[in-house]
Amino acid sequence: MEEELLGSGSSKSKISQIFTRLSQWYQGVVDRTVPWRKARWFFAFLLLMGFMARIIIAQGWYIITYALGIYHLNLFIAFLTPKIDPAMDFDAEDNGPELPTRANEEFRPFIRRLPEFKFWYSVTKSTIIGVICTFFDCFNIPVFWPILVMYFITLFCITMKRQIKHMIKYKYLPFTHGKPKYQANEIGEVQSM
What we know:
Elements: H1 2-32, H2 37-58, H3 62-80, H4 116-133, H5 145-169, E1 182-184, E2 190-192
Antiparallel strand pairs: 1-2
Helix pairs in contact: 2-4, 3-4, 3-5
């Protein structure tokens, strides 16, 4: 009896080791892609184009496409949103958010709620899951796809309008071009470039 338990335990540990090694290999592959931003996004674009070609050729799975579009829209909004919402960041006197208002104030880079790498990783993973879903007929629910397209466009416009208003209200841009560079002039004063 004990031998049977030990035997089954060792097979579980071997399976566990295999999954551990496989997950370590996978994480290593993902980690090696970090420096290649353009190549990663090109791959994600090709994957999305392959998904769209599959949908157009198969003439179905519009619900999967709509769900994928909504998920990608949510990821994009999180990518454009600051990690700390200025609407919730009030100083002690409740005078409003503490953001730099002049060029000579402290430089604070834009920190995203969803970093670029996680954005790419989520887009790629969800697109692969979407492609896999298109191979199962149970997900091919018949719908009138023009309604889904119009609803998605309306949702996109409303969401982006709200995001742009938020950006204008709190005076931030979701892109940081780098820390300002300073150059000393002849007198020894430091001027911003």
